[in-house]
Amino acid sequence: MFGVIDLPTYLAGLVLIILLPGPNSLYVLSVAARRGVRAGYTAAAGVWGGDTVLMTLSAAGVASLLQANAVLFGIVKYAGAGYLTWLALGMLRAAWGMWRTRGERPADGEAPAPAEERPFRRAFVVSLFNPKAILFFVAFFVQFVDPGYAYPALSFVVLGVLAQVASVLYLSALIFGGTKLAAAFRRRRRLSAGATSAAGALFLGFAVKLSLTSA
């Protein structure tokens, strides 16, 4: 169908890949838990936008160029690791601010998130600066594209749409699951500070892991 081969295997692999924890899903869950459904979907939209760019670059062959050029790959890799580190430090600073004001009672509906946070932009950049994801997309997608099909771009579109649908379903589940924690976070700054600190620590771990990645 549309130059896609072995579709059941692709879907099975896609489910496993989507379920693997990563900085994208963690950030969406964190935003939804702290700020509610609307902010959660704003962050999710950033993830979907970043993934779309990565898939497009992969289909265009940019991923193969990164894999073949160690210097270029290193630049993108360390840029991504640096951004994740910066984001982690921001989370840790926000958590410290929440901890300092833990004795104060927030106003109704107040979310304990920093006012300057931009969920879409942050999620988009986290998703975009992920060279391992680019290499993964090209290595995974190519296996399911019929080399003899006349319109390979259409095959990539079909595979990409399926990947995005799976991502929408998964992130939606995280968003609505996370909002169950939102009320508790808004009432208890200690809980919110602890969760934000944990997220920041995990993002530091993602940054270290990314910096050690090889092409």
UniProtKB/TrEMBL annotation:
Q: Where in the cell is it found?
A: Cell membrane
Membrane topology listed for this record: Multi-pass membrane protein
**What InterPro entries does its record include?**
LeuE-type
Membrane-crossing segments per the record: 12-33, 45-66, 78-96, 123-145, 151-179, 191-212
Enumerate the UniProt keywords alphabetically. Answer: Cell membrane, Membrane, Transmembrane, Transmembrane helix
Highest taxon, organism lineage: Bacteria
The record's similarity note reads: Belongs to the Rht family.
Put simply, this protein is called Leucine efflux protein LeuE
Q: Which gene encodes it?
A: leuE
